[in-house]
Amino acid sequence: MYTPRDIQEFLDDYPDVTDDPSCTANLKFYSNNLRCRPDNRTIEEIHEKSERLMPLWWFGEYGKLEAKHGYIQWLFPIREYGMNYESQPLQAHEIDAMKADPVVIQRVTESYKLMLDFYGMHLVSEETGLVGRALPPRNYAARYYNLVRSSHNYLRISRILKCLSEMELERLNAGFLLHVLNEQSEENELNTRGICNSMDTWWANCLRNKEERTWIGALIRRVRSADENGFIFTREDYEEALRTRAETGQLGIRDKKETNDSQTSNEEAST
After folding, report:
1. CB 3.0 to 4.6 Å from 77: which of 26, 94, 150, 209, for a disulfide?
2. pLDDT, tens digit, for every residue of 184-240?
3. For residue 27, what are the contacts with CB-CB under 8 A and spacing of at least 6?
4. Where is the segment annotated Disordered (predicted)?
């Protein structure tokens, strides 16, 4: 499969990028000591859900999250330049400091939850990365429709997944990818050419864990060939894959063909 240059640089840990100790904007922002620009908000104000700060908080503010473009570089910094000239690329020394601070890591997780909600989803488990559809009163169908028709969000998702990897939150990436794949395979949701192309070429490769990247890539190809093999990646399969990883350290699902053949043999033996 074709690997875009930005993905290869990410997988290679940006070998040509030099750390600049003087650049600290991302660390200061996630430490709540700097306001992002141009929106002039601290990270706590963006995450705040109290009535007192109602004009500031962004959860559920779908029009704001769709129309604004500068915030995504601040919420999910990576070691690449973005479209917001008032932000800075993430620096290696910032990564070390941010990963070492549990408060910062929880804030990154909250930013991920904010964007999942925007996309019609919610994080069921921070430990496994399990994702589900947004719960009422959220309208997941309307958010899915927006994701289908607003393709600029596909670039945002690539950035989100890269950032999570940098912050040692890559376990969440598989949860997101497998949720989308399950929706495509079992429910025919989010199953457009644009989303499939972004997922197969970019999103599924935003995993530095080679075993997980290879396993998910093979699973995607199996789903894409469903017309030939009849395979459906079910919600049960999805949950099993993450449960197996929690128990064994590796993603995995039972082979349905082998299971069905075994059940048939048992039934024949009992008659």
Report:
1. 26
2. 999 999 999 999 999 999 999 999 999 999 999 999 999 999 878 889 999 999 999
3. 94, 97, 98, 104
4. 249-271
SS3 248: helix
CB 100 within 8 A of CB 38: no
Nearest CA to 242 out of 189, 176, 163 is that of 176
* Structure confidence at residue 100 as a pLDDT band (50, 70, 90): very high
How does 129-151 read in b/e, with b if 16+ C-beta sit within 10 Å? bbbbbbeeebebeebbebbeeee
DSSP state of 32: T
Closest CA to 92 of 166, 8, 159: 166
Against a cut of 0.70, is the pTM above it?
yes
Neighbours of 89 (CB within 10 A): 18
* Residue 160, C-beta contacts closer than 8 angstroms, at least 6 positions apart: 72, 76, 112, 115
What was the pLDDT predicted at 269? 43
Q: How far is CA 262 from CA 148, 192, 231, in A?
A: 40, 36, 18
Chain-centroid distance of CA 106 in Å reads 15
